[in-house]
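Hello forum,

I keep getting stuck at the same step: I have a sequence, I want structure tokens, and every attempt I make locally crashes halfway through. Rather than fight my setup again tonight, could one of you with a working pipeline run this one for me? It's a single chain of 159 residues.
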Amino acid sequence: MLSAPDLQTFQTSSLTRNMKPADAELLLSMSSEALYTAGQELFHHRLVDGDLFLVLDGKVNVLTDDGDKIIEVGPGGIVGEISFLDAGTRDASAVAVNYVTALRFSSAELRKKMCSDKEFGFRVLCNIAQVMCARMREAEDRLDALMDTAHEAWHTWDK
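Reply #2:
Ran it on my machine without issues. Output:
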């Protein structure tokens, strides 16, 4: 049973956006609560596992195989969405920054429900897509800023 703050985070999360209350309750019933301590992995790079995670409390760093931080995800955010969607190996590792409470959704169970209930499945896919689009835009903004810096440095060096 989730605490009141964790339930509030779930209900206002990126995963339940525009979801009917009954569908959100169903989604919650399909999850298992997982607790992690600082430094503990939620999942590891190259792991063949498509489970999806919703962070309720704490922060999770998504890291490259070399340990470089891709993004930090806090309460209401999801991790593991790429492997959930494509059923491929993990492209990154997810590591708890501090004490983390998360909901873990079994990829097999959630995919099965999404296939049997198309409206539910469509909403889950839309919500994951919105998260991925926002992350893509953030990455593009960071890349543009880096390119501007590199361009300025190149022209300054040339003088």
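DSSP finds five helices and eight strands in the chain. If your local run keeps crashing, start a new thread with the error log.
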